[in-house]
Amino acid sequence: MDAPAHLPPPPAIADDWALFLDVDGTLLAIAGTPDAVRVPPGLIDALASLQQRLDGALALVSGRRLAQLDALFAPLKLPAAGLHGLERRHADNHIDPPTPPSLLAVFHRKAELVAERYPGALVEDKDSTIALHWRGNPHAEQALRELSEAALPWLHDYRLQPGDGVIEVRPVGTDKGDAIAALLDEAPFAGRHAVFVGDDLTDEHGFEVVLDRGGMAVLVGNRQPSRARHRLHDPAAVLAWLAAGA
Ligand SMILES: O=P(O)(O)OC[C@H]1O[C@H](O[C@H]2O[C@H](CO)[C@@H](O)[C@H](O)[C@H]2O)[C@H](O)[C@@H](O)[C@@H]1O
Asked: In the chain, which stretches have pLDDT less than 70?
């Protein structure tokens, strides 16, 4: 995997694309807390126009819950994978809900106890996954990582998903790559040129799938290493690129 600094920008969006878009760090600039993100002017209009231009083949692929995505991008209800692929809304609008876990509640209580020792650290409960954030207090990183790693032996069938200022505990067996692969098997995504735009480690699963299918992976920012072969500088550059193709 190359260093991303010299990667070219993606070409202009074409009519035959299936476009998959990560949310935090890609469409939305990173904010201090999950609730503090702001949807920039023009983004919702650009997404709506692009969805029409691509005959519906545009989907969000996010670590957030579908309900959060709908609130952020209202009035749009786009095809989407939430919780890193655990929840899915297909183009025909039906939803595959996640299965609620049991032992995760125990882990949640333990995480709250650790987070209380580090003001600014945050435990985000998403029902089927739990994200432990240290952006508000970097001193919490080690304790939150250690807590998560120690939980894996008893939190059966769960795995860790590291991210930007966060570590997330989520069930094994689904990731953004699985979600994109599933959408690419059905209308209106099937048969199109797959393109995924994302910034974080969790997006590498999606990059792998689109590249395996002859598509294109677009990294946002400078994280390295990455499988991506195209790059956009930041969410503002993503918006300009989307708006130009809308
Ligand atoms: O897959 P994504 O759409 O990129 O979602 C990944 C996680 O995004 C959110 O956390 C991240 O963004 C927050 C707001 O900018 C930031 O405060 C936090 O440090 C980041 O990790 C969201 O809260 C998570 O649930 C998502 O999994």
From this structure: 1-5, 98-101
Q: Which CATH superfamily is domain 104-171 in?
A: Trehalose-6-phosphate phosphatase related protein; domain 2 (3.30.70.1020)
CA 24 to chain centre: 7
CA distance 217 to 153: 34
Predicted interface score ipTM higher than 0.85: yes
Angle at 75 between CA 70 and CA 77, to 5 degrees: 50
Q: What is the pLDDT of residue 127?
A: 83
pTM for the model: 0.88
The string over 13-45, giving b where at least 16 C-beta atoms fall within 10 Å of a residue's C-beta and e elsewhere, is beeebbbbbbbbbbbbebeeebeebeeeeebbe
Known catalytic residue: 22? yes
pLDDT tens string 90-139: 888 888 776 556 788 889 999 999 999 999 999 999 988 999 999 999 99
Atom index in ligand 1 nearest the CA of residue 28 equals 15
Q: Which CATH architecture has domain 13-97+174-245?
A: 3-Layer(aba) Sandwich (3.40)
- Report the alpha-carbon distance of residue 71 to residue 78 in Å, rounded: 11
Q: Which atom of ligand 1 is nearest to the CA of 26?
A: 4
In this predicted structure, what is the pLDDT of residue 181? 95
120 pocket-lining for ligand 1 (C-beta < 6 Å): no
Q: Which two tokens stand for residue 104?
A: 């995760």
Q: How many CB atoms lie within 10 A of CB 162?
A: 13
